[in-house]
Amino acid sequence: MNNKLKINISKKDDICVVKLSGIIDEDANLEMISEQSTESIHFDLEDIEMINSCGIREWTNFIRAFSDKVEVKYFNCTPEVIEQINMIVDFLGEGALVETFFAPYFCEKCDKEQRVLIKGNEVKDGKAPVKKCSACSSELDFDALEEQYFGFLNK
Amino acid sequence: MIRKLKFPIKFKLTVVLSSLVALTTSFYLYIAFDLYKKDKTAYIYDSTLSSATSRSLRILNFLDQQYKDLRVLKKTFDQKHLNTVKTFFNDSAFLVEFGVYQLDGRKLFRISTKEFAHSNKKSVRSSIMGIKESEHNLQYFSPQKGRPGFFQIGVRDGNKIYRGKLSLSSLLQSFYDDSIYTNILVDSDGILLSHDDLDENPLGQSWMNHSYVKEVMTSGMSKGVIRSIVGEQKRLVAYNKLDKYKLYVFSSISEDKSFEVIQTLINKTVYTALFIVSLAILLSLFMAKIFTSPISELVAGTLKIAKGEFDTSLNISSNDEIGILSDSFNHMSKEILRFTGEMKEKIRMENELNVAKLVQSSFFPDEEIILPNAHLASFYQPASECGGDWWGYVCPDEKHLILMVGDATGHGVPAALATATANCCANNLKEMAKTDPSIYQSSAKILRFFNRAVSQTGGNILMTFMAAIIDFENRSIKYSNAGHNPALLCNYNNKPRKEDIIPLAEANGLRLGIDMDAQYSEAEISYEDNSYLVLYTDGLIEGKSAKNQKWNTRMFYNTIVERDNYYGGELLDAIISKALSNDLKFYRDVSLDDDLTLVTLHLAEREYSKKIQENLVFKEGKATISRSNRASNIETISDGNLSHFICGFQPDLKWEQNRLDQGTLSFDSFFTENDIMTAEIFSSEKIIFAIDELLEKCSTALQHQSYKKMLRVMALELTSNAVFNAPLDNKGHEKYHDDDRRRIVNLLPEESVSLSIAVNEHYAAVSVMDRFGTLSKKQIIESILRGTREKEHMDKPGGAGLGLFMIYCYANKILVERCPNQQLRFTALIHNEKRFKRYSEMNTSFHFFEKATV
Known about the structure:
By secondary structure, chain A is of the alpha/beta class. Chain A contains four helices and eight strands; from the N terminus they run ββαβαβαββββα.
């Protein structure tokens, strides 16, 4: 039995919201999501700690069979998940969209890294949106290579 | 670093001065006390002896007087003047009885005071028996039956004995005048005849056993002073023997009492000395403060100078060495201030020159450029901060290359301005070539274009210049020369001789800048594939060594034809290493007279068309270095069958190269023992727990939160691979390779996998070691390459085939240390940068080490 991945499913206005927490690996059992009868599914991946190579296999096999039937959207994707999305060609699934995701920023004034939640449509021409530091309100510096990090938006 | 003040001079000075006073005073007191004590002791002894002597004399005088009186009475009695006897007796102060007796004791005459009126015949007889004929003696008789005690003196003459009795008080009075000394009188038998305190010491008792009486009598000495203990008291005892009467007089005094004055005096002197020493310490403190306050001021001043406050000055008014020192200090600080100002100005100028140098460096192309049909290598060294040499190239299309080299007159800033003009012209040429192809079809036209620009700069700067247009399609070179050293063309299809070197010496015209409307001609020459075109400035062949020897054209040519063949930048390396070689020392250790530029163009279409990559790839030492992206790099690694491939964006590029060349690059070279945490894995079930446990211990040093998650993934992938893929059975087959990864695999002890996670301020790494060494370089590269190309998992039993690809994407360095059939250590390392962007830029270096034994 796999207790490394927790799946929390809730429904709101015909939309199935799936919150995943923990590790997606070879033991990940995603069947209970497949069993959901819905036309739209929203994945909240904020609490995903890690996806290993076998987890990628489990996930892409799952999403490949799933995404052509329902509308899939992703929310709160962490930088680690974004790395995987950029790395693996079919990670999101056919026609799926990343609605919101965390992006790494850095506040020069506070000398501190920050993860800022941004919407996919905020990224224009591959440039990171301007964000302010939550502590000192100074402008944050995007702390990754834009071409690399936002690569998934062009897929 | 400035040391902490522990023992200030003030303290030292105070200690020295106080110690000096204290020691001197102590020494003086010691000597003085000793002398004083000896002197006073002698005085006390002498006084005591004088006391005894004076009492002896008094006793002697007294007794002599009594005897004299007795003889007067005798004579008067013998002359029968009895009335006179009575009168004399009555006048006598001390005689209480006078009697004349026959030898048998019969009384012939007797006169006495009332007190002694009664007489006993028997006692008279016995008492007069002690009176000898020719001796003076004194006998004591104690009181008996109401008769008071007395002293007896007597004279014997024939058959008669003349006896006198003296009252007790008579003798004692001579002792009772001294309150300091205790005086006693004893006879030769030790019988006490007199004492100051008769209540405690009755007369007539034997004192023979008394300590000092016995000592004196047995010593035989007649006069002296001894120390004696009486009771518990130490006493000084002086004695004097009256030989005439066989009497001893003792005067004694308590030693403590006698020395009391001395001790009092010593105490007072000590108190005075202590007062003087205290005063001296206070004075020392005061003096030390006076002496050291200027020094403290100097120290404070130097500390301020050390902090960079060069405007510090001291105000010390003393006219001694310290005053001179403070004047020197003030002078020094002023000088430093002046020098600092000059230095700032110099630094500012140097900075400006460095900026100019930096700006100028941007005028030059990279030192190594790979073109589809050729390889460009260059070397440039200015004689001063800014040089007057310049070279550049323009690739208007794939078939043409315009190569230019120039040398402005002189060097330094004015010459550098000319190079700026040349560079500007080259950039313009590049833009113009996009719309006007004719520009790169005529080298003469290019020279005219440059000439106009240089002529208009003013400042009378001239420039030798040469432009060559290489037509790769037709394998021809069009060139024009404006007074520059002709370029050299050399074919290497067969070993060239010096005669085979072709100088492009035609089409020579005026130097740039002489005449704005100067016309230039052009010449054309064809070349064969695998030829070199060499462009250079005169700095290369006119430079002189320390021994004034010229690196001349002959040596230059000899180097060009030294080898059968060159590749890429090898010809340039050969020329430069010869020119700068330690043996010849042409340009090494001597300042250059002129700027030095050398450009070699290897025209070898077959070679470079294959090698050209998206970005630069070149070899340095053992490593191949690239600034391309990960996908291109892994293609290059797989194509080139390379073992060491360094990403050129690594901040420790040189360190990594050096370590590699020295053979010391390994997992351990990045970390100290304390940085590394290790766990031994025996079961697939325990992997994630072991990883989390190790990360918990060392993740605090990670500078970005993403690194922990990356290390976790990489550790999980590497450890799972080692557990499932490394172990072999007896037949050499992989035991668990195709097993479902959900299955729990328990390893035998000899199959265990060692997992290490290491973090320090610069790096973080996961290192996994198996005991089989099965994974080959080919397998690793193929796995990464497949992941890079396909970007998806494999549908096969066992792993998903993405682990190594993921590690390649995450890691900044991969080190594989393999001993086939023994062990394999796979290390994935990231730079522990605070900025995630900086980490992201670095891509991945790859190193594969293989050795026969561990």
